[in-house]
Amino acid sequence: MWGFDGVAHEATDNGVQFHNELAILDDTYLVGKLKAKAHPFVEYFKFLKQFEDENTIAKYTIPAPAQTFQQMIIPANFKNTRKFYATNKELIQDIGIAYQDVIKQFYDAGCRNLQFDDCTWGMFCDKNYWEARQEDSVSLEEEAEKYQLQQLNEYTNEQRERIIKQKVEERNKELEELDRLLEKYPTPESRMPINNRCCMCSHIDEVDNYVYLCTICVKQNMFDYDMDKIKKLFG
Questions:
Q1: 37 to 1, 8, 101: CA distances (angstroms)
Q2: What's the pTM value of the predicted model, to 2 decimals?
Q3: Please, where are the H alpha helices in the chain?
Q4: 207: which DSSP letter?
Q5: DSSP for 50-102, written as a single string
Q6: How buried is residue 111: exposed, middle or buried, by Cβ count under 10 Å (0-12/13-18/19+)?
Q7: Nearest to 35 by CA among 63, 65, 5
Q8: Which backbone phi and psi does 116 adopt, to 5 degrees?
């Protein structure tokens, strides 16, 4: 974690309890906004990569983004973290941006097997952990709902963008076809007369005038995008 700007560490003989076993780890905390820089792990990976062959791909493991986030909001770090981040959302955003940069560094170095080491998932199935957090008015159900809503919003936004893009592409194709036909039939007299097939649907129109779009297509507002072109089309 301290391969990022804004993160420091110190050996204090403290650690993390894992089922009454103390894992001796450096205290890791923020000293500024978390940002990416040339990460030392990438250089370590380059050393590892030299041992690849046709049957072996070098794999590297780094702390997961969730693990980094959790480290900065543990009780021992929470107050210090608030000096730099007023909300967890701001911290999460910076962690995400920094990880994207570092992942790109690994990719550019030739890494194709990058594993995230994440111990935070165990908290979701640790009843004691969630009972202890009730003092903070936090529940597993609330956290799960928050995550689900976030995922739903992201999915909805993606769907909306996809639909808009599809509609724009469809409209552009129709307008391109309209431009092509206007160029081919620039005046009312040059357009297809009565009983000729409609250019769009092959329907034979029965109205007594010169048409190039049948009444069915007109009624369906197929070209209700640019009235100037419609006026030009029908003289």
A1: 12, 14, 8
A2: 0.58
A3: 40-49, 65-73, 75-81, 88-108, 121-124, 127-132, 140-184, 215-219, 227-233
A4: S
A5: TT-BTTB---EEEE-HHHHHHHHHSHHHHHHHTTT-SSHHHHHHHHHHHHHHH
A6: buried
A7: 5
A8: -95, 125
Confidence of residue 210 (pLDDT cuts 50, 70, 90): very low
Tokens matching residue 105: 């560094």
Pairing outcome for strands 27-35 and 21-24: unpaired
Residue 200 tokens read as: 């769009």
Pick from 115, 117, 119: nearest CA to 19: 119
**Radius of gyration of the chain from Cα atoms?**
31
Give the pair of three-digit tokens for residue 68: 């980094």
Q: What is the dihedral of CA 90, 91, 92, 93, to 10 degrees?
A: 50
Residue 117, beta-bridge partner list: 63
Residues 65 and 95: beta-carbon distance below 8 Å:
yes
Q: How many Cβ atoms from other residues are within 10 Å of residue 102's Cβ?
A: 20
Q: How confident is the model at residue 96 (pLDDT cuts 50, 70, 90)?
A: very high
Instruction: For residues 185 and 182, give the distance between their C-alpha atoms in angstroms, rounded to a whole number.
Output: 5
- Count of Cβ atoms closer than 10 Å to residue 191 Cβ: 21
